[in-house]
Amino acid sequence: MKRSRFWIIGAVVAAGGGAVFLAGQMRGGPATSYESLAVDRGPIVSRISASGAVSARTTVLVGSQVSGRLSEMFVDFNSEVKKGQLLARIDPRLFEAGVEQSRANLMAARAQLARARAQSDLATRDLERKRVLAERRLIATVDLDTSGSQADVAAAEVQAASGSVAQASANLRQAEINLAMTDIVSPIDGVVISRDVDVGQTVAASLQAPTLFTLAADLRQMQVDTDVAESDVARIESGKTAEFTVDAYPGRTFQGTIREIRNAPKTTQNVVTYNAVIDVDNPDLALKPGMTASVSFVLASRDNVLRLPNAALRYRPSSGPPGPKGPAVKKGPLRTASGWCGSKASRAPTRSE
């Protein structure tokens, strides 16, 4: 009986000690404080973010349709060009020789045509004489038939010679076109963005036209190709406003208008995005092709409304034992809509260190 009382008293003492120890640990943790912020009035904006790249609205790749060695270069990077302006020239000597050869072949074909016509005329007159003699029964019928066959053959040779002349004319025209293509000219008014060849380099255009220059039509009219997630693409539409920044000008915000949202999907690592094209005016030429843009699409905005930070509407307990820890309230311009609130001050719990 005494032994049982001893065990009961020991259990009570151990429980009391544990409670005292736990209370001491709770009192030793950091205290919880609250930061109060007043609800104010001002504009609120709801938006989604995406990334994109700046490019010219019209970009043309200028290539060569003939092969040869580049003999002259007349423009360089950032050169302004006009439509029809000479950009470069491929060595034309082989093509000039081809034109001369084609012209000589045409002359030979024309001479062959004249000879065939003369032979046809002779065969036709001989046939007429044979017909007169045959009517008088002065020649055999077989001689008349032979003359008729010879006249038909001569007429066919005239047609063949005419075809040879047409073929030679076409070959000459092709040779002249190839010679003209040795002059690389600008197809548009614009600016040379890149130059991919140098003087003396051999251009091979056997399979596809190699790119020699990249031209932008007008760098004062730019566009931003933006990848918008499929979960957000239904929330934007053409004609809406978009804002973006670039790393070159961190303190400057550029404005643009959504021109179109293309239906072609783009899948990268099972993430589907759609290209939203934004038109941007670039009067001071600050934007360069290829710049990375951080884009914000404005979905809705309200002016002169009650607002407070999103952090004041959320509560996140701390993972440790001391007590609750609230999110810190970030001061500064508000960028997202937080909801409708009363006029009283909001209290966001924060943890004091």
UniProtKB/TrEMBL annotation:
Q: Which InterPro entries match?
A: Beta-barrel_RND_2 (IPR058792), MdtA-like_BSH (IPR058625), MdtA-like_HH (IPR058624), RND_pump_MFP (IPR006143), UPF0194_transport (IPR050465)
Q: Which Pfam families match?
A: Beta-barrel_RND_2 (PF25954), BSH_RND (PF25917), HH_MFP_RND (PF25876)
Entry keywords, A to Z: Coiled coil
Q: Which residues form the CusB-like beta-barrel domain?
A: 224-298
Q: Where in the cell is it found?
A: Cell envelope
Top-level division of the source organism's lineage: Bacteria
For this protein, the record's NCBIfam families field holds:
RND_mfp
Q: What is this protein called?
A: Macrolide-specific efflux protein MacA
